[in-house]
Amino acid sequence: MACGAGLIAPATASAGSGGAFASAPAKIKSVSCVARCATADAAKPGSLLRVRGSGMREVAKIVFLGGGGHADNATVRVSKARRNSVDVTVPDKATSGRLRAVNGDGARSVASRAVVSIQRGAGSSAALDVRVVGRRVYYDAARPARVDLLARRAMLVTVALVRVIDGAVVTTWPVALAPEAVSSITWDGRIEGVAQPVGRYEFRVFAGGPAPGAVAASAPAALATGGFDLVDHIFPVRGRHSYGSGQAAFGAQRSGHTHQGHDVFARCGTPLVAARGGVVKLNKFERSAGNYVVIDGEGTDVDYVYMHLQERSPLAQGARVLTGQRIGNVGDTGDARGCHLHFELWDAPGWYTGGAPIDPLVFLKLWDSYS
Ligand SMILES: [Zn+2]
């Protein structure tokens, strides 16, 4: 524990706010328009917004913070509160900006990172408005690929997921769109449990219900199209870094052993994330490796090994970790000269279970080039 303040402070004191609230403030994670929307990614006065986060059950009011200062703040009571979300109707006076959640007893959240866009006037006049959320999607990450659809009138459409390189239709979804309500389709990079190849994909939206072959190259033009890149790894060191050479390289001869990974130097404390999700095989301390973690990559036969972490990773052995999820910090525990990540890749069947280490440098540089 960093400090024991909780033991001596009165239970009702809320540090920093000066208030005395019984409830913990909510934390807003995302905001989306779900009905009577202006466009697929914008609201208007009268729109129904869903504000998602944690601790939302106690939230009584949402404040639309607008631009700077309090003059343009607009507060509205929630129409429905659930554990992980509340619904509110956008008040007439609200302007684009961040939100704050206020509990029944006055406990206030910090301003959301998420920004709600509020349009006045006509908004989009298109019969169908489509928005693809995120330009890059990591396989097995917390955030899947997503397309939001908004129609002015009720309509039936088919969303096709197309692999751009060969035009293959990977899968399709029939969607019945209600007027001015946003419908979302998500895709996690798998088809029937199998990881799909990386590369460019598009959501293509066609009028009408699903018809076999209706989305082939000769088919009528899509009503709307939006693309994203599917990638399978993220660079694990999330800060300034440099690649060592010589003794830092894979295969370097060291006293009594061969270097089985590549060292990436970064300041101690730089966040480390899982290059690929999977299952935590090991989370241990060892005299030369220091604090280290071995992750069996999801959908691969490859093991991913991270050494010299500053502290023991919070992940439990056997836990599922997602691509990009925090696994700890760069450190210099164990036999390490200078703060660095010692990174290893092992092919099937894995780390010290019959697999062999492979030189990870080309992969690290590839992941580093886009993430
Ligand atoms: Zn090393």
Short key terms for the protein model shown above:
371 residues, mainly beta, Immunoglobulin-like, Glucose Permease (Domain IIA), 3 domains, 2 helices, globular, disordered N terminus, binds zinc ion
The second-level CATH architecture of the largest domain is: Distorted Sandwich
What is the percent of helical residues?
under 10%
Poorly predicted runs: 1-18
Supply the number of helical segments.
2
Strand content: 35-45%
Bound molecules: zinc ion
Average pLDDT across residues? 89
How would you classify the helix and strand content by structural class? mainly beta
3D architecture notes:
The longest helix is centred in the C-terminal third of the chain and has 10 residues, at 361-370. This protein is mainly β. The strands form 8 sheets. Strands 19, 22, 24, 25, 26, 27, 29 and 30 form an 8-stranded antiparallel beta sheet that branches. The protein has a 5-stranded mixed beta sheet with strand order 10-18-17-12-13, with no helix packed on it. The protein starts with a helix and ends with a helix. The chain contains 2 helices and 30 strands. The chain has helices at residues 5-8, 361-370; strands at residues 27-35, 48-54, 59-66, 74-77, 80-81, 85-89, 97-103, 115-116, 128-133, 136-138, 145-151, 155-163, 168-177, 182-187, 190-191, 194-195, 199-207, 224-231, 242-243, 253-254, 257-258, 262-265, 271-273, 278-286, 290-297, 303-309, 320-321, 326-329, 340-346, 357-358. The protein folds into 3 domains: 14-116, Immunoglobulin-like, CATH 2.60.40; 128-231, Sandwich (Immunoglobulin-like); 242-370, Glucose Permease (Domain IIA), CATH 2.70.70.10.
